[in-house]
Every structure is written in C-alpha cells, then in structure tokens.
Amino acid sequence: MFRNGLVLGALGAMLLVPAIASADIVERPFEVTLGAGASHGPDLDGFTASAEVNLGYYFTDKLELSIRQSLTYSDIGATGGGGSAWDGSTRVAFDIHFPMGDHGQIQPFIGGNIGYVYGETVNDTWEAAPEAGVKFYVTNTTFIYLLVEYQFFFDHGSDASSAFSDGQFLYSAGIGFRF
Fold this sequence. Notes:
Blueprint lengths: L1 H20 L8 E11 L7 E11 L4 E12 L10 E13 L8 E14 L5 E13 L4 E12 L6 H6 L2 E11 L1
Antiparallel strand pairs: 1-2, 1-8, 2-3, 3-4, 4-5, 5-6, 6-7, 7-8
C-alpha cells in the first residue's frame, strides 16, 4: 500500500516536469518561514507546543517545494506516565498557491507532505499529510501564514484505516520571508 502511494506520487511529480521546465524565472524563488504551533490527538486529549522552520523553493509563482523541521515539547501525558518529552519531524512538502488580490497579497494554498516523525512520545515512523493554509503578504517579501495539516502514520503492522484514525492535526502560524 505504502509502495503504491510512493509510485503514484512519483508519477504525479513527473507530470509536473513540463510545467516546471517551461515556467518563467521567479523573481524571489526562495522562502524561509519561522512558526509556532500546537497539536492534539483525534480525541483532544493532550496538548503540545512546537516550533517549526521551513525552507522553500518556488519553481513557478504557484508551485513550491519545501523542507520542514519541527521540534515539539509536550508536558501532558508524555510517555504514558506524565512528565515531559521531546518529539520532532522532518518533512518534504509540495504546495500549490492561488494568488488573490491586486498583487497577490493573499495566497491560499493546498498541498501535502511526507516525512519522518520521531521522539519520546511517538513511534518512530513515516508520515504523510494533506495540508492547507493561507499567506497574507505585508510587503512584497514578508508575510504572515496559517497552516493546518493532518498527519497519518505508517507504523509497522497497522492497517490503512488505523493509520489514518490514529493520526494527528497540526496547526501552525508564523512569519515568512521571500528572497
């Protein structure tokens, strides 16, 4: 199942190559974001706080590929016995932006990511997540963003339905810069 998803994802990426190759040069193709967020399980039974950094590259004005690193601290229900714990995730994301307004000051986006989750309160495993958000440009190079994603996990021995139902929502907000 996981292998089929990777094959379909790779085929989908190959279909985008002609669009990327014929695209105009983007004026400021790089992006860095710094954010903070929170997450909870599907039953709203715990809370964590996180920090995130993202480095992105725009192939066109609308297509962005990025790598994200998150670090999460939890002090509720950590490792089943209370206390505190640290977790992290490293993900690769692909997003499609939809510029709105006179100069694209508002940019909703949708996409997905795939990566690896690790730490003290999670089983180290691969994850995938659909995501959506919006960027509000304050200047031509600076924006504020909101992002929500739903990570589902590929634990060994779990079936597809439990991988999705045992996932988690991630919310983040922050500031970003284009250069």
